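Q: Predict the bound structure with NAP.
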Amino acid sequence: MNQFVFVGPGRIGTALTLVFEDAGYEVLGAYTRNVRGNPAVRYTSLTGRPVFDLAEEPRPLQEADAVFVTVPDKAVAAVAKGLADTGQLRPGQVVVHTAGALASSALDPVLCAGALRLSLHPLQTISDPAGAKELLRGAFCTLEGDSTAVERGQEWVQSWGGIAISIAPCDKPRYHAAAALASNGLVSLAAVAASLFPAADPLKALWPLLRGALGNLKSAGLPAALTGPVERGDLETIQLHLDAMRDFPTALRVYCALGEATVGLAFAKGSLTADERETLFRLFRSASADQPRTTKIDTDRGEEA
Ligand SMILES: NC(=O)c1ccc[n+]([C@@H]2O[C@H](COP(=O)([O-])OP(=O)(O)OC[C@H]3O[C@@H](n4cnc5c(N)ncnc54)[C@H](OP(=O)(O)O)[C@@H]3O)[C@@H](O)[C@H]2O)c1
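A: Predicted complex:
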């Protein structure tokens, strides 16, 4: 159980190749639709492993103990079906996908080849696979699938210093919604805050603040990490914020939605009375209801981008 191949040499395919090679496993290479595309070129340059065309070089795929299908979620089922229909799998192989929202049943077509199914989702964000080894060490990784495949997955995750946890298939969409909020949501929130910031280089100025908030979360936890005008019950300050965002409809709606969540958190922390909580809920709901709907992030002049 030491040789792997990847179908999809993108960010996760490249990152896992690097961590597995580092942990002593052998990655025979990756398969793609386009061996001259940017993901394929980056894969070879970062890992030193070859990229194959599925139609031209089936041998490493058949020899591998595990086949990682690291394509976008929407392509997982079709790729698994294609591998099974073209006779490229063999009994006992583990076929793995890394999609957070999909259960291992997305790989059902591989069962008719006698292969095992595993969903293995690293709870980490990889935008540049070159730095993935550090990010994946210590990261949680959820596993679900055929029992023998899950046992192998636990060994693999532990080999790179990850923390393997199991998950019920029916919980995967909700689990992944939480992951997307914590990761992609944070990036989007920074983009909205930057669009409102009235000085040059907003991300540079906001970064120590973002880092401070994350540090508070780590050291104090929830709800103790919360600070700010909602937590202090500063209604007048919040009204100033709402007035200042009149020409920034996206920022205002995000502010109000998060404001409602913040009110619940501040109440749980014991820093708001029940009356203050109701007043703040009403304020955020009415300010948000007045706003036009837009799909664009505001520019720094409050116009649509
Ligand atoms: N990036 C993350 O932070 C992260 C974290 C955890 C889990 N995941 C999961 O990992 C999987 C891959 O995500 P990613 O971020 O690595 O995506 P990605 O960087 O976009 O890479 C996807 C790869 O799949 C190839 N591909 C796309 N469509 C294909 C198809 N129909 N058939 C064969 N190959 C195809 C792409 O190459 P071509 O377009 O050149 O064919 C590319 O090499 C997803 O299920 C995602 O949910 C990602």
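A: Confidence is low (pLDDT under 50) at residues 300-305.
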